[in-house]
Amino acid sequence: MSRFLNSLGSQLHAGWEALSSAVFPAPCRICERMLDSASRVPLCHACLAAIEQPLPEPVCSRCGRGIVSTAVAETAGAPLCRMCRLGFYDFDLARSFGPYTPLTARAILLLKYNEVTPLGAWFADRLVRLARKNPEALSADVVVPVPLHPIRLRERGYNQAELIARPLARSLGIPFRSYLLVRTRPRPNKIRLTRRERWETVRGAYATSQAARVDNLRVLLIDDVFTSGATLDACSRALRGAGAAYVAALTVARALTSFDGAGRI
């Protein structure tokens, strides 16, 4: 009976989506083709499917960077990229759902600047899948979004990382604690920053709030994009400085560069 009701519910939902798309046609916010279903996320199935392309394997066991060298990838145990072998990052683990392609970038910008807030929950569902593949992330005591500076938060009206982190925490059953981390220095107004500027901009720009109790906590950091890793590193250093025992990070996308000679970061 339960299976019959679930099947009936799915059929009714599909019928309602088809009827709504016919009566209230709207364009996909990325490709501008007419939407093929009614959904709170205003993207067509083709664009959503393209965004769900996974990152290529293998990846560094610490930062998630793609590993090209066969010699490194085939070493026993957990493979590490050159940067992680040198201890470049302070966080213990970082993983991203997919590559930062032009299509994914447009979707993230819709969430970040165009108030298409339902994308936050959609991205959260993808990070739930990612977390379940990484037991270290699931062992977190708290979920913390990368914060915006108060000036930027007033301008935008919301923090896109929080829109992803809150439903993620609810799905994983982990307490959500956005107040644990604050940004003390705003990001420059310059749109594009060089790699060096990214690191200089965030160095010392984050701190734990005065009321925060971080000692011995295992923290799961959430952000939209891993570009250079500077932001996650700076947040991790602030948390560790306050006594955090472990810091893992999940992001929706990871920027791909030619840094390692193969178009992967």
Describe this structure in words.
Helix content is 41%, strand content 13%. It has two domains: 1-51, no CATH class; 54-254, Rossmann fold. 37% of the residues are buried. The chain contains eleven helices and six strands. The longest helix has 22 residues, at 2-23. Mean pLDDT is 86; it is low at 2-7, 12-23 and 258-265. The protein is of the alpha/beta class and 265 residues long. The chain is globular and about 50 Å long.
Mean pLDDT: 86
In N-to-C order, the SSE pattern is HHHHEHHHEHHEHEEHE
Q: Which strand-content bin applies to the residues? A: 5-15%
* Order of strands across the main sheet: 1-6-5-2
Write the layout of secondary structure elements.
Layout: H1 2-23, H2 45-51, H3 70-73, H4 82-85, E1 93-99, H5 102-113, H6 118-132, H7 135-138, E2 142-145, H8 150-156, H9 160-172, E3 181-183, H10 195-202, E4 206-208, E5 218-226, H11 230-241, E6 246-254
Parallel strand pairs: 1-6, 2-5, 5-6
Antiparallel strand pairs: 3-4
What's the short version?
With 265 residues, the protein is an alpha/beta fold.
